From TrEMBL:
CDD domains in alphabetical order: GGDEF, PAS
UniProt-listed InterPro entries: Diguanylate_Cyclase, GGDEF_dom, MASE1, Nucleotide_cyclase, PAS, PAS-assoc_C, PAS-like_dom_sf, PAS_4
Annotated Gene Ontology cellular component terms: plasma membrane
Organism: Sphingobium fontiphilum
Protein name, entry field: diguanylate cyclase
First-level EC class: transferase
Length: 591
């Protein structure tokens, strides 16, 4: 996007000088009937200067153009009395247009973009010029014999048509866009533009100087062609050629406009109207085409970046239609799947996903399309494991069309098998006691809470809290290594006497808990007694070749759906305390 320029120290003087020359020429040659000038392009220079420079430089241009306006009006126009009021009116018109354009559009250009151009036209024709025209008509009707509304129409037509035609062209010139266009355009394209402009000038000269019939429509065809082929630069040059050739012919009394049986002032107004229509026909088209060209260039750059990243990425990159069909696959797919990109195109994405995970992948695609701009993450398993890759992670984002509607998704897929393995190891470490292989306290309590919630629909379950008798003496007499062996042997022995649905957890030290789902208190008591007897009869070999025996005390409680894990453990703990007070190596039921 073009940026604001820093004017040279002499730029305001040049702007003021050009303003004075154009203003003096306008009031000397186009004040038909003694009123306001029918032609006025001077404000176009001030608007172009203000639109292309930072606000801190404005005062210089405003001062220079104010002096120029006062001199032109006082010396050649309405006279010294009207000089100051007309200065204020001209400045007000220019400042209103510039203020609206600056506030409503962040783009610092007109002819290269459609929206700023329309903002400028609306600000000029609907707001600034009609308001300023009221003040100008009041001044003119006060010092001349021209009626108020006739003066207003003279002002409106002259200022609107002049500023609308020349301001965007001057903005281009001041920004150096024409110089950039000459540098960046290939020679062949330049020759094409020169040829089109020469044809346009020839046709325009024929229409205004030679043709006997009113063929004003004839230059429109090459003008449109120029707009399409040469963009806004070519269209701007064509408008200037039309103004010079047609304006000269009309002023000299030649051409279809001059042959209309009206006053000379009306001829000038009509030609300006024709010039403005030509501008409105070509410039918006050229601006829209320039915007599309910039968009195409941005898309081409983006496509090039995407391709080089996708083709050299270790991750797979897919383009997928809204219906779930693969439209593009990056070369890395060969490494992941032993299938080349060509073999994946037109294949449904679900055909490379394990059937159990297809629903979560489809949901991720739907969420991405439903919420454009968001990135959806999903983990899934491939249908076929290649090179040990058993888990994939996919990031999905919607692709939008020109109407901001999602038409598909782009996604990246990476191998996360190693991450998944580490995650599983961490999960095991968090849920399994490293010494005994029993569940950790956290895992046991989570399972107990889940079991209690299931009991709300009916059923029974029991929990036994177990503590090894005199475990401290085992450590003291035989060492902590023997104590560890005893705990491992305890868990292994009890696990042999339990079902698949049962669970052993180590709550801490030598304290363990057993969850017995789908079991009432009498059945649980039998199981616990059987376990107690098995442990009592077990001989545990220790490192010094000797063997030791251990026993345990247990408290048993039956749980219901109205309980919680803490209350169940607390009740079992009280029963365990009663077992220890009863001489240990026994089972007691909770009260």
């Amino acid at each position: 996007m073009p940026t604001l320029r820093t004017p040279s120290s002499w730029q305001p003087f040049v702007t003021g000088l050009v303003y004075f020359i154009t203003a003096a020429f306008a009031v000397m040659t186009s004040r038909f009937g003694g009123g306001l000038a029918f032609i006025w392009i001077s404000n176009a220079f001030l608007m172009a200067e203000l639109l292309t420079t930072p606000t801190r430089y404005w005062w210089k241009a405003i001062l220079a153009c104010s002096i120029a306006s006062a001199m032109a009006t006082g010396l050649f126009g309405l006279g010294p009395t009207a000089a100051l009021p007309m200065v204020l009116v001209n400045l007000a018109e220019s400042m209103m247009v510039v203020a609206i354009c600056r506030s409503q559009s962040r783009e610092q250009t007109f002819v290269g973009s459609l929206r700023p151009l329309f903002i400028f036209i609306l600000a000029l024709t609907v707001i600034a010029n009609p308001i300023a025209g009221l003040a100008a008509a009041f001044v003119a009707s006060s010092v001349t014999t021209v009626p108020f509304w006739h003066s207003w129409l003279q002002w409106y037509s002259g200022h609107v048509l002049g500023a609308m035609t020349f301001t965007p062209i001057l903005v281009q010139l001041l920004r150096g866009e024409w110089r950039q266009w000459l540098k960046s355009t290939p020679n062949l394209a330049k020759f094409e533009v020169i040829g089109l402009l020469a044809l346009f000038a020839f046709i325009t000269a024929q229409v205004f100087f030679i043709a006997r019939y009113p063929l004003l429509f004839l230059p429109m065809l090459p003008l449109v062609v120029i707009s399409f082929r040469a963009g806004h630069m070519g269209a701007a040059i064509a408008i200037v050629l039309l103004a010079l050739i047609g304006g000269t012919a009309t002023a000299m009394g030649f051409g279809p406009i001059a042959r209309i049986d009206v006053s000379h002032g009306t001829h000038v107004q009509f030609f300006q109207f024709y010039l403005a229509i030509s501008f409105l026909l070509s410039m918006p088209v050229a601006a829209d085409l320039s915007g599309r060209k910039r968009l195409f260039q941005m898309l081409s750059d983006s496509e090039a970046r995407f391709r080089i990243l996708a083709d050299n990425s270790g991750d797979m990159v897919f383009n997928i239609s809204a219906g779930g069909i693969i439209q593009y696959a990056s070369p890395s797919a060969k490494e992941f799947m032993n299938i080349g990109p060509d073999g994946l195109v037109d294949m449904p994405l679900e055909e490379i996903v394990l059937s159990a995970d297809r629903a979560v992948v489809a949901n991720a695609l739907r969420r991405a399309i439903k919420h454009p701009g968001s990135v959806q993450m999903v983990e899934f398993r491939p249908l076929h494991v290649v090179n040990g890759v058993s888990w994939w992670e996919m990031a999905v984002r919607a692709i939008l069309n020109e109407h901001a509607t999602a038409i598909g998704v782009v996604c990246t897929i990476r191998d996360m098998s190693r991450h998944k393995a580490v995650q599983q190891e961490l999960q095991i470490a968090a849920n399994v006691d490293g010494l005994t292989g029993a569940a950790t306290r956290r895992a046991f309590l989570q399972r107990l809470e889940a079991e209690i919630q299931d009991l709300a629909a009916g059923g029974k379950a029991c929990v036994a809290l177990i503590d090894v008798d005199h475990f401290k003496s085992v450590n003291d007499q035989h060492g902590h290594g023997a104590g560890d062996q005893a705990l491992r042997a305890l868990v292994a022995c009890m696990r042999k006497g339990l079902r698949q649905i049962d669970m052993i957890g180590r709550l801490g030290g030598e304290e363990f808990a057993i969850l017995l789902p789908q079991t009432d208190l009498s059945q649980a008591g039998l199981i616990c007694e059987r376990l107690r007897a098995a442990v009592e009869d077990m001989a545990i070999a220790i490192d010094n070749g000797r063997s030791i025996h251990i026993t345990f005390s247990a408290g048993l409680v039956e749980t219901e759906g109205s309980d919680d894990a803490a209350s169940v453990i607390d009740a079992a703990d009280k029963a365990l305390y009663n077992a220890k007070r009863s001489g240990r190596n026994c089972l007691r039921l909770a009260a």
